[in-house]
Amino acid sequence: MLNGRRVLLAVTGGVAAYKSAFLARRLVEAGVDLEVILTDSATEFIGTQTFAAITGRQPHRSLFEDESVSPHTELARWSDAVVVAPATAATIARIANGVSSDLLTATLLATEAPVLLAPAMHTEMWEHVATRRNIETLVEDGYRLVGPETGELAGGDIGVGRVSEPEQIIEALEALFDQSGGGRRLVVTAGGTREPIDPVRFLGNRSSGKMGHAIADEAARRGFHTTLVTTSDLPALPSVKVVRVETAAEMQSAVLEEEADVAVFAAAVADFRPAEVFGEKVARADGMSSITLQSTPDILASVVGRQNRPFVVGFAAETGGVERAIEKARAKKVDLLVYNNVSEPGSSFGSDTNEVVIIDSGGQTDPWPLMSKREVARKLVDLILTTIDPQG
Ligand code: CTP
Question: How far is the CA of 109 from the centre of ligand 1 (A)?
Answer without folding.
Answer: 40
